[in-house]
Amino acid sequence: MRITSLNLRGFFDWESRSPQITAFLRGVEPDVVLFQEVVYLPEVSPFSPVELLNRDLGMPFRHEAITRLQRGRTHSVYREGLALLSRLPLAATQTLALQHEEGDPHQRIVQFADVTADDGVWPLANVHLSVRDDFALHHLGEVLTALRARGERRVLGGDFNVNHLERHASLWHDAVLTSQVATYQSHPSTRENDDYFLVPNEFRIDRVRVSGDELSDHEAVTVDLSRAAAG
Questions:
Q1: Nearest to 195 by CA among 223, 225, 173
Q2: In sequence order, what E strands does the chain have?
Q3: Does residue 30 sit in helix, strand or coil?
């Protein structure tokens, strides 16, 4: 299973970036793409950027959760959220709102998706956590607690908004972070790393790649996964 995560940065500088994003994804050929910062701005386009990208990519399955309504610098009100594209069927999707903490300007969500492949279902989660470390780590803890309560072991991917997330490995068990097997910086302007995959030990990380900085203010992170051998 090949999965790419990209913080899309909405429609910012869209005319120059969108052809590069399309070309990049065509070259990488992921089975699933997880997007963050997916916007709906009717004054810019009646379609989301993921819908527009998929006109060229032609991936047959799409799920979008543009559920956050908030104020912006350029547009007084804008809608923003998460989305995914998949070459493989989606058996189920679900979007949950995470708890909102006082002082956090954002209401965050998590997007769950069950992707059906020839070797069975791949349970995924797409995240974009809050911009301050304490809020982001609280949200990650909330997601992991919910998954444990549900008895689910999901591959989490997205923009975690925490530099050196591997330093907080006490939050999870029996899982590996991409930054623990590969060295990279996904946010070049700050020389930090915000984007990861957190992979349960039922799966194995075979390869981690990052894009250049021409796609967004974040680099895309692509992970190749396989199922770990039993026993």
A1: 223
A2: 2-7, 32-40, 61-70, 78-86, 90-97, 109-117, 120-128, 155-159, 175-177, 195-200, 203-210, 221-227
A3: coil
The token pair that represents 200 in the structure block = 């349960």
190 burial type by CB count under 10 A (0-12 exposed, 13-18 middle, 19+ buried):
exposed
Residues with Cβ within 8 Å of 73's Cβ and at least 6 positions away in sequence, in order, are none
Q: Which pLDDT tens digit goes with each residue over 153-211?
A: 999 999 999 999 999 999 998 999 999 999 999 999 999 999 999 999 999 999 999 99
**Amino acid identity for residue 33 in this structure:** V
pTM, full prediction:
0.96
Structure tokens at 165: 């997330």
- Go through the chain and tell me how many residues it has: 231
Contact between 80 and 47 under an 8 Å Cβ cutoff? The reply is no
Residues 214, 225: Cα–Cα separation, whole Å: 25
